[in-house]
Amino acid sequence: KREGRNSIRLFKTENQHQTMIDEAIMEAELYKALDQDELTVYYQPKLNVRTNRVHYEALVRWFSPVLGTVPPLKFIPVAENTTLIQDVTRAVVYKVCEDIKHTPELFKDAVTSINLSAALFEPDLIDAHFIQVVRESGITPSNIEVEITENMLMKDPIKGVEIINHLKELGFRVVIDDFGVSYSSLNYLRSFSLDGIKIDRSFISQIDQHHNEKDISIVHFIIQLAKKLDLYVTAEGVETKEQFDILTSLGCDEIQGYYFSRPLPLEKIKSTIHHFFDY
Ligand code: C2E
Ligand code: CA
Ligand code: CA
Ligand code: CA
């Protein structure tokens, strides 16, 4: 038994060691990737069910010639440990603005959201690596939405108010991503001038499984609360027609998920966008 425990510990240590090596390699490769412009942005269409308008979420993609496809959930945390997250953010914001500029037929009347890392939730950093990039591109801020998480706001609510007010004054939309996963207190919603919330996928994935009444009730409650507070509600991770139908009947404004479309490269969006209206 004792040996077993030791060997498990050894195994864990080796694993941790390997993780450190992996992260160091990834960090070095990411540094090169930024230099060699290996990052791209995919767009996931979102459907506003009231207006039938399509909006987008920009999601970074890294196809590394050395590491293969590295998912953002793997490399964003590594970037966040260093200042590389600043370069990644600038690269994403720059690409989104370029795409908006060069593809007005898709983006002119749409809102495209960009995920903001917690590591940039600092007035000076947002200014240097986000706002400034948009300004230089000449893109109207109202075409861009900033997705932030509850955690970011609640870590320092005073700073949160300052940042949100600044973004709003400039004309950006601001929404809460992954709504419902971290804070049971809803009081904070009153303190910030937000445009909307995105109900986390974990709630959505439950609502059609055998018509789970409790989960439907939670989503129903979130949507009603959002309406009362005049917030726009998006459901993320919608994969089935049943989920789509339940959410629209509950009054959800916007649907995002594989049911509607996966995140796609811009070229693909251009060639398939008319199909989205078949729903
Ligand atoms: P997120 O912001 O919650 O983004 C939604 C994630 O869910 C995306 O994964 C998207 O591809 C996936 N998704 C969309 N619809 C469905 C669905 O119907 N079913 C399922 N199972 N998944 C769906 P992705 O692109 O791998 O991104 C993962 C996370 O990485 C994002 O979560 C976000 O936190 C982060 N991320 C992605 N792009 C960026 C970026 O440009 N900057 C920053 N800071 N973070 C990013
Ligand atoms: Ca997001
Ligand atoms: Ca999300
Ligand atoms: Ca998420």
Automatic annotation (TrEMBL):
Q: Which GO terms describe its molecular function?
A: cyclic-guanylate-specific phosphodiesterase activity
Question: Which residue intervals define the domain EAL in the entry?
Answer: 23-277
What is the recorded name of this protein?
Answer: Diguanylate cyclase
Q: Which organism is it from?
A: Jeotgalibacillus malaysiensis
Specify the taxonomic lineage. Answer: Bacteria, Bacillati, Bacillota, Bacilli, Bacillales
Q: Which residues of the full protein are shown?
A: 278 to 556 of 734
